[in-house]
Specification:
By secondary structure, the protein is an all-alpha fold. The protein has 9 helices and no strands.
């Protein structure tokens, strides 16, 4: 018969299957941790590759957009030539409307280009922060795996993102990261400086706007100089995102553990 505690012995003294499973728990826990570690390494490797491609795309867009700033007056005639080349039978009235619309269309294209720079910078900052956090997660998880596997301190297994990285690759990685940030920062400054220079209005906004006629004048100025307004509205948050990207660093491990413990309902 079973013992009074409902536990794990039969009449022959054999352990119940539940107890055998409980005895295997440390091995299963170690295997699950190692599997989760490898899955996280694969995830951060894919994120790293996508982030690198995104960085190259952002640099190319900034370089191209900076050059386009010097050729703004050529965009509308180039679009007109392309459209008329594909639609040679347009009437004169349609051609006149097309010529009147193309300058606004070219400004809209440049505005979308400015917005795309903001989007790429925001995505780059977000993805970089996720990668840094994931590497720190791997570093902290390595200590748990080493304890589960009873790995001695003089062995280097499962120390790649922790002590091994600090001992071998941190200085070179910081230098490369500094070069990346310097190139991106210079391109951002060049891009927005050229945009503000070429889009700067010839006359400032007519203020105040007390009546209908003045309001119409104000909106006319806004439409005629909307690229300058877009430059101002996009440049400030984009440069702030770059400063955030350039200052991304791993949090102290003690702070992370304290915050995680607090969020999990423990006491920090």
């Amino acid at each position: 018969m079973l013992d009074r505690m409902g536990g794990g012995c039969t009449e022959s003294g054999e352990r119940m299957p539940e107890m055998r499973s409980a005895g295997e728990l440390p091995a299963l826990r170690a295997a699950a941790l190692v599997e989760h570690y490898q899955a996280t390494v694969d995830l951060v490797s894919r994120s790293w590759e996508r982030r690198n491609r995104q960085f190259i795309i952002l640099v190319c867009v900034l370089a191209a957009a900076g050059l386009v700033a010097f050729a703004r007056q050529l965009i509308a005639p180039s679009l007109e030539a392309v459209i008329l080349g594909h639609l040679p039978g347009l009437e004169d009235a349609a051609k006149d409307r097309l010529r009147a619309f193309l300058p606004l269309a070219s400004d809209l294209l440049l505005g979308l280009l400015v917005v795309s720079v903001f989007y790429l910078m925001a995505s780059l900052c977000h993805r970089t922060g996720m990668i840094i956090n994931t590497y720190q997660y791997l570093s902290m998880m390595e200590g748990e795996i080493r304890r589960e596997l009873s790995i001695d301190r003089d062995q280097i297994a499962f120390s790649r993102e922790g002590p091994f990285y600090e001992a071998t690759g941190s200085h070179l990685t910081r230098l490369i990261g500094f070069c990346y940030r310097a190139v991106l920062g210079l391109l951002l400054v060049f891009f927005f400086a050229t945009r503000l220079f070429f889009d700067f209005p010839s006359e400032w906004v007519p203020l105040p706007v007390p009546g209908r006629g003045e309001a119409v004048q104000f909106y006319g100025w806004l439409i005629g100089n909307f690229l300058f307004v877009v430059d101002i509205l996009i440049a400030l948050p984009t440069l702030w995102l770059f400063l955030r990207y350039a200052s991304l660093r791993p949090r102290p491990e003690e702070e992370v553990r304290a915050r995680v413990l607090r969020l999990q309902g423990g006491t920090a």
